[in-house]
Structure formats: structure tokens, C-alpha cells
């Protein structure tokens, strides 16, 4: 069975000191590096948030405060601080992440009008990123998922992988949550397990 590792958004802005730093984000990087060192993956894919500076998920572009929610093209949109802007240091992959074995990079969130948490498609399910086609072209049957952040981009990437027909596993030690709401991490793990996604401790 061919398998892939999907590493979600391990970028400077989501790590320590970043514009949208996930608590303890840097602590997962040695675990992810060890996974790549000790396992034989047929493909290793990085997803990368890659927003234009005028992206409408940014509070600053809507005259809103971070944490507010608006309706964006019919979908509730949480207002984030500016982050992972194309071509900036914040959008770069964190330097400690070993990229020697990476085979493919998927950029997402490039459409100004709609956010894209999942590595597979935008939040409106209008546009695919090409990740599903890439994995199926390479006959991948099983995907393992790590990265940032558990309760947003990792969660939606895992759900989309499962819905696309891949056997889907999430490494609990390879992810951290934003936890905008208390218990968000715990609730996310319960939700994913209930859908049939395997949680690897």
C-alpha cells in the first residue's frame, strides 16, 4: 500500500514569534522530522498558506477586529490577523523543518475572495488545489497528516482526505491547535475519530 505524509502549514507565521502563532507549534517539528527519517513514504507533501496581501480573511482588510466573524461569499469567515502573505518571511516554511525528502508543495489560500483551510480545496468547495489528483496519480492509498493547526487546516485536510477515499491517519503528537475556543483541540480529535479517521498517539 502506497502512503503519503501531508505536512500542513508549518510556516513561520504559525510558529513561535509569528503573526498567528499556534501555542507550542515549534514542539511538533522534531516529531515530524523523525517521522520522515524513520518511515518510508512514497510521497511527502507540504501545504503552504499563500495569501495575497489584500485577502478578505484578514481583519485589516475588512475594517474588523481579529476574532470577529463576517459572511464571506455566503460562508462564515473568522477574522484573522494578516498572515502568510505571499513572498514574506512569515509565509516561509519554518527553518527547522527538514525538507530533504519533500516531493511536492501545494499552495492554498491564493484566492482573495475565499479562504482555504484544507490542503485539498477552498472553504466553499469551489476550487480544488490539485492535491487529490496528485495523490491519486501516484497511487497513494493511505495518508498520514501532521502540522498546523489541528482545529482548522489540519482538521479540514484530514476530513477532505477521508472523503476523497484515502485511508486517513492523524498523528496527535505531530499537531497543535489554535484553541480559539476552549476544548477546541479535544473536540476536534473526537470529531475526526467519529468520522472514521485514525488517531495515532
TrEMBL record:
Family: Belongs to the isochorismatase family.
Pfam families named in the record: Isochorismatase
Biological process terms in GO annotation: pyridine nucleotide biosynthetic process
EC number: 3.5.1.19
Single GO MF annotation: nicotinamidase activity
Pathway(s) per entry: Cofactor biosynthesis; nicotinate biosynthesis; nicotinate from nicotinamide: step 1/1
Source species: Epilithonimonas hispanica
Record's keyword terms, sorted: Hydrolase, Metal-binding, Pyridine nucleotide biosynthesis
Lineage: Bacteria, Pseudomonadati, Bacteroidota, Flavobacteriia, Flavobacteriales
Enzyme class: hydrolase
Residue stretches making up the Isochorismatase-like domain: 4-181
InterPro entries: Isochorismatase-like_dom, Isochorismatase-like_sf, Isochorismatase_Nicotinamidase
Protein name: Nicotinamidase
Amino acid at each position: 500500500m502506497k502512503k503519503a505524509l501531508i505536512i500542513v502549514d508549518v510556516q513561520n507565521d504559525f510558529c513561535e514569534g509569528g503573526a498567528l502563532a499556534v501555542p507550542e507549534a515549534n514542539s511538533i517539528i522534531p516529531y515530524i522530522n523523525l517521522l520522515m527519517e524513520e518511515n518510508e513514504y512514497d510521497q511527502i507533501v507540504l501545504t503552504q498558506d499563500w495569501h495575497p496581501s489584500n485577502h478578505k480573511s484578514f481583519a485589516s482588510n475588512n475594517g474588523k477586529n481579529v476574532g470577529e466573524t463576517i459572511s464571506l461569499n455566503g460562508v462564515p469567515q473568522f477574522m484573522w490577523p494578516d498572515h502568510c502573505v505571499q513572498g514574506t518571511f512569515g509565509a516561509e516554511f519554518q527553518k527547522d523543518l527538514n525538507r530533504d525528502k519533500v516531493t511536492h508543495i501545494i499552495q492554498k489560500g491564493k484566492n482573495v475572495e475565499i479562504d482555504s483551510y484544507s490542503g485539498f480545496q477552498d472553504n466553499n468547495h469551489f476550487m480544488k488545489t490539485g492535491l487529490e489528483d496528485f495523490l491519486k496519480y501516484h497511487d497513494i492509498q493511505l495518508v498520514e497528516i501532521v502540522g498546523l493547526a489541528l482545529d482548522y487546516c489540519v482538521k479540514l485536510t484530514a476530513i477532505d482526505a477521508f472523503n476523497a477515499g484515502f485511508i486517513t491517519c492523524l498523528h496527535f503528537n505531530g499537531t497543535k491547535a489554535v484553541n480559539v475556543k476552549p476544548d477546541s483541540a479535544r473536540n476536534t480529535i473526537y470529531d475526526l475519530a467519529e468520522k472514521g479517521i485514525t488517531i495515532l498517539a
